[in-house]
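A favour, since you know our structure tokens better than I do. Would you make up a two-line entry for one protein for me to read? Write everything out right here, beneath this request.
=====
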Amino acid sequence: MDQPGISYPDHQLALKGLARLNRASGVHQKVWRELLLGMAAKPQTGPVRLLDLATGGADLPIHLFKQARRAGLDLRILAVDRAEGALRHAMERCMASGVPCSMGEDYPLEPGIRFRVADALAAPLGLPQPDWVTSSLFLHHLTNREAFDLLVELAGLVKKGLVIADLSRGWLNRVLVTIGSHLLSRSPLVHNDGPASIRAAFTIREARGLAESAGLHGVLVRSAFPGMWLMRWEKP
């Protein structure tokens, strides 16, 4: 969805369709709950710095920020994506949602979201150290080696831990995503990417094995309806 040559209107249409699919699946609230469990296990005082990788239209960080604001949590998010068009759309979404946002290199000095163009597959990442890392629906875009290298990089970068959500490979999930992508989006990109993403996704067993081999010992990977899994890891 972020490949070169896509026009900004087509990219916007695809991101809006993806946002509707994400709302229907409830994935953002699932990530928030896992993050709360992680923060309870690794408590801290003061601001919480969170890095959101491959943020796309920023649906996840916007949701996390709103939930944190309701909970009285000082959450400062750095959301990165390699596609400038996606971040442009994300800024528009933030402003429409009343969420403080800006472009920059580091975490915001006050609660809010800062956006930065960066490739999650760069080695090293070259990003400022976060307390927590989140990512949603990104890992299935990667090869086994790329996913392994990313998890190794994140394990060394993060202070507290990470929460990752992604699709789970399987025929039933492919059917559900195919139907959902046509019902909830007019974007041909979404219609094509949905089923393709399921075919490329890791199963729960594969995701757990990948994380453990990358050094995320004690990682928790569990099923999340519909057709997803959630990974949570707290750094020892």
